[in-house]
Every structure is written in C-alpha cells, then in structure tokens.
Design a protein that fits this description.
With about 650 residues, the protein is an alpha+beta fold. The chain is built from 18 helices and 21 strands. A hairpin with a 2-residue loop joins strand 3 and strand 4. The protein is globular. It starts with 17 loop residues before the first helix and ends in an 8-residue tail after the last helix.
Length: about 650
C-alpha cells in the first residue's frame, strides 16, 4: 500500500496571482470573459466619476482582444513609497492594491467607486494570456506588458506627449482556458457601456468593432436617467410624467447617519399595462440582482404614496395597502452613491449594505412627498392605480381562502398569527424556545409574519408512523398551524389549506440549534415532502457575532454582524484596511436568539430586505440519495454507520461547543 507523507513541505502557499488562477470562480464569473473586461471599464468609469475623464473608448479586435481607453489622469507610474516598484505594476499584479481603500474620510482618490476588494484588474491580468498597458502622464508615454499575470516587458518610456494629454489604455487578451466559452457577450458589454453613459453626465462612451470599422456605437444621454428610463420602457406613455431627481448629503447637513456625498439619483414612472423595467447601480456598478438600495427605493416610494393617500382620505374602507401595490407597476432607474458598499460576491451583482436601505428611502421620500403635493392631478392618478392594485390583490387572496373549505382546526394557542389574508406574503417562523419566541414576536412584521415557539427539541420522526405523529404536541401544533396534514412522497396531499407561503426554521447558531434544525428538516422531508418539493421550507441564518465599530472621522458608529468566525475575520480584515485599529471596534458573541433584542433580531434574521434565509431544495428531487443520507444520520439502527462516517469526516468539522 502506497503511503503519502504529510509534513511541513505538504503545505502549499499560493503567492501573487496564483489564488486567482487556482480558483478563478472565487474572484470572477467564469461563464465568459465579459466580467474581467468590465473591471477595466469600471476603472475608466471611476476616473470619469471622479471628474477627470469625459471619454471612454472600447475596441473589439479581430484576434479576440479588447482595448479600453480613457482620457483620465493615467495610472501613477512612479515607484510606490512602500513597495519600491512601479505603482502601475502593483495595480495589475497585487490582489489587494488600488486607490479605493482610503474611503473612510471620503477624501480618497476614489471616494465613491464600485471597487471594494481591490482585486479587480489584477484578476483580469491573472486570467489573460497577455495584457498591455499604455499610460500618458506628465508629458511621457509609458508602457508595461504582462503575460499570465507576470511582467514580460518592464515599465519603460516609449514616447512623449503634451502634458495635458493624459489617460490610460489597457489591451486585454483573455485566456480561454479559464472560461466556459471564450467570447465575451456583446449584448452585456453594450449594456454596461450604455449604463456608464447614462450615469456619467457629459461622458461619451464609444464601442468600435475592428472587423467592421464603420460599426461604431456611441452613447451619450443629455437627459440622464430620465431619457434612459424612457428607452428601457420602450417609449411607452407613462401614467404621469417621469419623476427624475437626485438627492445627496452635503457638508452642511446635520444628518450624522451618512457621509457627505452619499445619496441617490433616480427616475420613476408608473405604467398601467406593464411592469418590471427596473435597473439599479451602485457607484456606477450595475447590480443586476438588486439589493438593499432597491429595497430602500421601494420603501421610500411606498411610504410617500401611502402618506399622500391617507392625508387626502382616498383609501376605501377595508383596503390595506402593501409595498407591492405601489411598486408592481413601477419602472425605475436608480443610481446610488455609497462610501463603502458591501456586495454579495466579487461580481458585485447584489448590494448587501444594510445602511443603503435607510439611505435611499430617506433620500427619496421627502422629494417625492413634495412632488406629489405640488402635482395633485398626477398624485391622484398614481394613488388610484395603487389602490386598484391593492383591491385586485385582496380579491385574489379571497379566492384562495374559499378553496380552504369550512372545516378549519382550532389553531394552537401559542401561535402568534399574522394579519394578512394573502398567502403569497404570509410566512411563519418556527422558533426555538419561548425566550427567542418572545423576541421574535416583538421583532416581527405583524402583518405578514407569524411566530410558533417550540419547547425543546422535537421528536426524531424518521421512523415514526404517521398515525402516531400527533401524539407529540409540538408536531401536532406545527401541522395545524401550517394547515397541511402529514403525507408520503407518493401521496397527493390537499395543499389548498396551506396557510403560509414560507415556513422558516429559526434556531440558534450553535450545536443545539443545528440539532433542532436537523430534527425539523427530518420531519418535513419524511412527513411533509410536498412542502419541500414545492419550495415552501426555509432555514434562517442568524449571526453568531456582532461587531460594534466606533465613529471615525466622518463615518458614524456602525453595527456589523457575522454568521461565523470566517465572516468575522473578513469583517475585521476590512476594518483594518479602512485604517481602523482593533481598539476602534469590539466583538460580542450571541449565545442564542433569545439574547438578541427585537431590533437586532429583526435587522439580522427577520427583515426580508436584510436577512439571510436559505431555501431547502433537492437537486432534481433525488429522493433515493437524500433518503439514504437521512437514514444514516437519523435511523435508529445506523449507529455503526454514523460512527464510521464521523471518524472519516470528523476532522473537517469545526465544532462550536
């Protein structure tokens, strides 16, 4: 039997850009090279956002390479004072080197940029067969070239130019071995370039195809977001004229929650016969998956319209407005400016900054209040549309209610139900313990969220006959509360009595909490499989740590939350990069959900706009493999198999005891 040595030499340290080449999917989207080109375009756009460039020129070459040119200041070429090598070389070869870290004061080279991680163009370089950079700066033309991320032509002066002639030219040849398919998406590239023109007033963005020199596309939007919203709405006639404005915190503001320069610009319009034409951006970065800034826009719009309707007594008796009523027919383009944005993943498709919701809602509500009350005819048309949507929604929920029949079981006394009649928005939290249940009741949105506290650990139901399930009070209460009877995988249960669209398991972020989570997942998988199959079961992800960050400079005090120790280390690393010392923050550990006050529980675990809730799904609903796993973990006669599995895999588990 061959033996493998495990000693000091077995540990491999990835240096430079090796981590990117080893695991490119951790740093960029590997479907095609479009995103690594977008990183270069984003850098050019950041120069324009900072006010130093007014032209961005992109050329698609016949050989598959792409050139991005801007007339900004040019990347610095002098020796870095600490690293003692050309700064432009550092930018393209070091994962965490860039001009976007000094953000805490709002005075950095790029105070408002999309770049956060500092890995953008270095990832582009790592995943390219060749990358050439030409910099015009201080009257000289400089060149440096890379191959596979390494310098092949050191920085040198190749010519001279006028001192006023500045800028950067980057030519990228992506390496196809890192991508599923080698060609960039032309449609996506055009969307990115068009959005830059929309969001950068006065900036001209051009795309040229080398194989067809006459095919030149240029974008420039004199009307900014308003003209762009008109375009993506196919020039339909809106219900009322487009409402476009911007609102940013200025230095004289007494708002201590946000930094000067933060804020948003937007264009809003309602259309009677269409919905869904929405786009959003953060510091010029397109956020295709939305995020907290979009939630803030919808919140601000809803609060403003609701206030107008209530002020003028327009709401019919018995009608309750909800956020979706105000936004279902709303088209918008939103551009948010945030000092230190937090994204989900390096591709930055979804904003997760919790403060962004409050920022955008605050920026939009007051101007929209003024606009509505200064344009009463427009405001009443919008109000009529929103009320109509609410009435249609309520009619729809009443139809669902009739299908439930008259035989309704008595609901459990410990269930704190929600008020809404619309099953599509109703959700129930199965909460571990009375203490956490009490906090959850105070934290919840009573209109849409119900709470069912569970006392202790529920029964292991893997091998329990269905007829004996209701002997356990907790399982009886769960079944009656959700309105569905236990059933088998081959049954066709009556789901018309289902009372909640989402059934969310919420337990502590510790070993006991994980055990309760597994017991409940066993219950639903074995005895309520159709709820799993149809995507009604979810698991909440409460944080384990809270980081209290003291106020620093113009940044107010902050509260950050981490799911686990890895996320805590990432937060502390980011705070260090902001220039803060460990004494500027303190870390607290939550022993359980009951230890959180209602505000913390709402913000971290229950607010649909900021929580992290995982859907429970089966890939291709593979029952055979899944049932075998449950049998090994939960079966009474599988103790030896469990022990063997634990001996094999125990070393890879970090136990939190």
């Amino acid at each position: 039997m061959a033996s493998s040595k495990y000693n000091e030499s077995s540990i491999r340290v990835l240096k430079g850009l090796e981590p990117v080449k080893e695991r490119p999917g951790m740093y960029t989207r590997t479907q095609d090279p479009t995103h690594i080109i977008q990183e270069v375009i984003d850098n050019a756009a950041d120069e324009a956002l900072a006010g130093y460039a007014n032209k961005i020129y992109v050329v698609l070459h016949i050989n598959g390479s792409i050139t991005v040119i801007d007339n900004g200041r040019g990347i610095p070429v002098g020796l870095h004072p600490e690293e003692k090598e050309p700064t432009v070389q550092l930018v393209f070869t070091r994962l965490h080197a860039g001009g976007k870290f000094d953000k805490k004061s709002g005075q950095g080279a790029y105070a408002f940029s999309g770049g956060l991680h500092g890995v953008g163009v270095s990832v582009t370089n790592a995943l390219s067969k060749q990358l050439d950079v030409i910099v015009k700066r201080d009257g000289k033309i400089h060149q440096i070239s890379f191959s596979d991320g390494d310098v092949i032509v050191p920085l040198k002066v190749i010519g001279h130019c006028d001192k006023s002639d500045t800028g950067t030219q980057v030519t990228v040849t992506p390496d196809p071995k890192y991508f599923d398919q080698p060609n960039i998406s032309i449609n996506e590239l055009e969307r990115v370039l068009r959005s830059k023109a929309v969001l950068l007033p006065g900036v001209e963005v051009t795309l040229q195809f080398e194989k067809d020199p006459d095919n030149i596309k240029t974008w420039k939007y004199p009307e900014g977001l308003k003209g762009y919203l008109d375009e993506i709405s196919d020039y339909q006639e809106p219900l009322v004229p487009i409402f476009a404005l911007e609102n940013f915190i200025d230095h004289s503001s007494d708002n201590d929650s946000f930094a000067p320069g933060e804020g948003a610009s937007w264009a809003l319009a309602w259309y009677e016969n269409s919905s869904g034409a929405n786009e959003s951006y953060v510091n010029l970065i397109p956020t295709a998956a939305g995020g907290t800034h979009e939630a803030g826009l919808r919140t601000g719009v809803f609060d403003s319209i609701k206030s107008f309707i209530e002020l003028h007594g327009l709401l019919p008796r018995g009608v309750r407005l909800q956020m979706e009523d105000a936004s279902s027919k709303l088209h918008f383009v939103l551009s948010t400016r945030i000092l230190d944005p937090q994204f989900q993943g390096q591709t930055k498709e979804k904003l997760t900054s919790r403060d962004a919701l409050k920022l955008v809602a605050t920026m939009i509500k007051q101007p929209l209040d003024i606009w509505l009350n200064n344009h009463l005819d427009y405001a009443k048309k919008i109000a009529e549309l929103v009320i109509k949507q609410a009435m249609n929604r309520m009619k729809s929920s009443q139809k669902i209610e009739k299908k439930k029949g008259s035989g309704v079981a008595v609901l459990p006394g410990k269930l704190t139900d929600c008020e809404s009649d619309d099953i599509h928005e109703r959700e129930i939290f199965l909460v571990e313990g009375d203490s956490a249940g009490g906090s959850a009741k105070l934290a919840r949105n009573k209109n849409t969220q119900a709470i069912l506290p569970l006392r202790g650990k529920v029964l292991n139901t893997f091998e329990v006959d269905r007829d004996r399930l209701f002997a356990n009070n907790e399982i009886h209460d769960i079944s009656v509360a959700i309105g569905v009877d236990p059933h088998g995988i081959n049954d066709e249960p009556d789901l018309t009595g289902l009372r909640y669209n989402k059934i969310i398991i919420m337990s502590d972020a510790d070993v006991d909490g994980s055990h309760i989570k597994v017991l409940l997942l066993t219950l639903f998988y074995i005895h309520f499989p159709k709820l799993v199959e149809k995507g009604h079961i979810y698991v909440a992800s409460p944080p384990l740590f809270r980081v209290d960050v003291n106020a620093s400079g113009k940044r107010p005090a902050r509260k950050l939350y981490a799911l686990d120790e890895n996320e805590l280390l990432a937060i502390e690393d980011r705070l260090t990069k902001e220039g803060l010392k460990p004494t500027h923050w303190s870390v607290g550990r939550f022993k359980g959900l009951g230890e959180m006050n209602p505000e913390q529980l709402w913000e971290t675990t229950m607010n649909p706009d900021t929580r992290r809730v995982l859907p429970v799904l089966l890939i291709d609903f593979d029952h055979q493999a899944t049932h075998a796993t449950f049998s090994k973990l939960m079966g009474k006669g599988e103790a030896s198999a469990r022990r063997e599995w634990m001996e094999e895999n125990g070393s890879s588990v970090e136990v939190d005891i």
